[in-house]
Structures are given as structure tokens and as C-alpha cells.
What we know:
Layout: H1 3-24, H2 28-48, H3 52-77, H4 81-86, H5 92-116, H6 130-138, H7 143-164, H8 176-180, H9 184-187
Amino acid sequence: MSFHDFIFYAFSAVLVAAAIGVITSRNPVHAALLLVLAFFTSSGLWIQLQAEFLAITLVLVYVGAVMVLFLFVVMMLDINLVKLREGFWSYLPLGAVVGVLLALEMGAVLWTFYSRGVIEAPALPANYSNTRELGRLLYTDYVYPFEIAAVILLVAIVAAIALTLRTRKTSKYVDPAWQVKARSQDRVRIVKMQSENRQD
């Protein structure tokens, strides 16, 4: 086994363990942090596949923006974990069926891949840029799916902000119209006091 294969299998093991931790962790903050680990490990695998732009995009966009948004929402929603766990076992049969189907589909993909044999990637010219090629594909062949994904992300951000700004007893609300009507005479009172000179 070469060093490249060892790194690939090590990163893959960490990625699978982090993904399992995301779906089995009872603490939503721990699940979000494990998802950050999964994103970092995935970016390492992208770098091994010589897709540096996708790797840095995964770190900057998902870890730097999306996961911060997830943590913000999770910590601001004040989730009641006791109620959330009450009906957990009722979803187990459906979850087991979905898990078995996913495992069968992944097995079919792997069997198809290995039955054909490993296909070597074609040699690329020296001036080839995967970033330029990815941009060309995104903004020509896949421009509509790209724009739809951007709109969906925008809707998700607006929904997250709306969820965190819901009316709660503990939240402090400030009326902007009341702030604009404020006058200095109502806020500041100048009191004239006689000065005293003390001599010890």
C-alpha cells in the first residue's frame, strides 16, 4: 500500500466516523462540530483528487459560513431535547428501510465501478486549470441548477433568521419608531449645583 492510498483510507475512515457521529450525537452542537470535521476531511479527499478549488470552497463556504449559520440557529432556537427524543423509536422502522436502501444503492455503485475495472484518468496539458473548467461548466451547462441552488440557500438563510427572531419572553425588542422620536430634553437633565471649596 502506497502512502497516497494510506492517506486516502485514513481520511475516509475519519469521514465515515464523523458522519456517523453527526447522526448519532444527542447534542446538536456536538453534531454540528462533527459535521465541520466531516467537511474538513472531505476537502482533504478533494485535494487528493486534484480538485483544489472544490476543496477550498468546501472549507470557506460550508465550514466558514454554513456551519456558523447552523451553530447560530442551533444555539438560538433553544431546542427542547426531551420532547425531541420522545418519538425517536417510532421512526426506527422507516429509518431502517431507508438505511438499507441507501446501503444497497451504494453497493450497486461500487460493484459497477469495480466490475469495469479502474479507469485511469487521461493526461492533462500543463496549462489545464480545473477552476476555469469548473467555472465554464457552472455558467454554461449548469447555470440554471446553480442559480436555483443559490435561491434555495438564500431562502434557508432568511428562514433561519426568521426562526431566531420569533417572539419570546426572554427576547428584547426595540421599536425603531420609538427610538427616532427620542429627544435630548427627555433623556438629559442638567442640574446646576453650587460649587464648594473645601480647605483641610
